[in-house]
């Protein structure tokens, strides 16, 4: 069962207005969207995963409209539905519990399955395509940059050696290859960072996030709120830096007074620091341990 992380904190951060319009750019199984609708908001929910859209449509909820698409295109999708301005934007990033739990999706090395990792299975490139075709240097660069794996070169070397004998087709094959290459140390599986990097590359997660943040702010009305839940340090940094640029800062002037410096439109943080899940939530849902919620309010048109 999919359990929406930081549920009450997210609903509170969005400050739901009865009759307000909210775009959920990462609808998933509509856990957060249902909370918004139950507070009186209307939700345009976007997801690139056909299975997620089908699940929501099979159990419809008044006030939620599900649309297939990428959250990077949320501004265009909202406008296509006549939503030129909205009261809130929500992004719950990363991979959903159903995607992790379904072995055939290939997101997890904990379950044997095809090496896929596509959130939208109609798109062309899978994780298997990347590990079986990319050059050593490009592979190492992806694993180092997106997975922040310090032993990326060793992993890439091992992948290239292994695929010369047999192309990779399953999650288990890749996980075992990475483990042989760098060994097992600590609590996390040695393939964790490599799988993360490949997933992010396959789904262009950083590019989608960059477009979603810009597009979300573009359609957010004055006083509207944007809330973003992240699970990796890289995406959290992107959100933090995006908000910081728009929050700006007051700079003292030599002649007296001060001047605001920042990127317009101006925003104000809902909470100064990221909100983390309480111990009670992480105990019931371990996947909430790495979750961080950041939210900000648009202050001007």
Number of domains: 2
CATH architecture of the largest domain: 3-Layer(aba) Sandwich
Radius of gyration, CA atoms, in whole angstroms: 20 Å
The level of helicity is: 40-55%
Beginning-to-end CA distance, first to last residue: 40 Å
Count of alpha and pi helical runs: 13
Strand content: 15-25%
Order of helices and strands: HEHEHEHEHHHHHHHEHEEEEHE
Number of strands: 10
Instruction: Kindly name the structural category.
Output: alpha/beta
The low-pLDDT segments are none
CATH superfamily heading of the largest domain:
Vaccinia Virus protein VP39
Mean pLDDT across the residues is 94
Write up this protein.
This protein is of the alpha/beta class. The protein folds into two domains: 7-98 and 205-298, Vaccinia Virus protein VP39 (Rossmann fold, 3-Layer(aba) Sandwich), CATH 3.40.50.150; 121-202, DNA polymerase, domain 1. The chain is built from 13 helices and ten strands. It has helices at 7-14, 31-38, 50-58, 74-80, 97-101, 127-133, 136-147, 152-165, 171-182, 192-202, 205-219, 233-247, 279-284; strands at 21-24, 42-47, 64-68, 86-92, 220-230, 249-252, 258-261, 267-269, 275-276, 292-298. The strands form two sheets. Strands 1, 2, 3, 4, 5, 8, 9 and 10 form an eight-stranded mixed beta sheet that branches. A two-stranded antiparallel ribbon has the order 6-7. Strand 1, helix 2 (31-38) and strand 2 form a beta-alpha-beta unit. Helix 1 crosses helix 2 and helix 4 (74-80) packs across helix 11. It is globular. The protein starts with 6 loop residues before the first helix and ends with a strand. The mean pLDDT is 94.
């Amino acid at each position: 069962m999919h359990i929406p992380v930081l549920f009450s904190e997210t609903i509170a951060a969005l400050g739901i207005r009865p009759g307000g319009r909210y775009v959920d750019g990462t609808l998933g199984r509509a856990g957060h969207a249902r909370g918004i609708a139950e507070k009186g908001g209307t939700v345009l929910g976007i997801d690139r995963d056909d299975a997620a859209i089908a699940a929501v449509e099979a159990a419809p909820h008044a006030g939620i409209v599900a649309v297939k698409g990428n959250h990077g295109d949320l501004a265009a999708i909202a406008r296509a539905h006549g939503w030129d301005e909205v009261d809130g934007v929500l992004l719950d990033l990363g991979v959903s519990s159903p995607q992790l739990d379904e072995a055939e999706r290939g997101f997890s090395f904990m379950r044997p399955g095809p090496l896929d990792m596509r959130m939208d299975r109609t798109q062309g490139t899978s994780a298997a395509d990347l590990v079986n075709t990319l050059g050593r240097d490009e592979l190492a660069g992806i694993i180092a940059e997106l997975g922040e794996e310090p032993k990326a070169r060793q992993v890439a070397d091992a992948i290239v050696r292994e695929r010369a004998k047999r192309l990779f087709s399953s999650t288990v094959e890749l996980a075992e290859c990475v483990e042989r290459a760098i060994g097992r140390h600590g609590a996390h599986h040695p393939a964790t960072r490599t799988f993360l990097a490949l997933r992010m590359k396959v789904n262009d997660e950083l590019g989608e996030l960059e477009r979603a943040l810009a597009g979300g702010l573009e359609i957010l009305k004055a006083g509207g709120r944007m809330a973003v839940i992240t699970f990796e340090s890289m995406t959290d940094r992107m959100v933090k830096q995006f908000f910081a640029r728009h929050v700006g800062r007051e700079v003292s002037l030599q002649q007296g007074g001060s001047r605001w410096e920042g990127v317009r439109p101006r925003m104000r943080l809902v909470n100064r620091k990221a909100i983390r899940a309480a111990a009670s939530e992480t105990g019931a849902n371990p996947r909430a341990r790495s979750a961080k919620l950041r939210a900000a309010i648009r202050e001007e048109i």
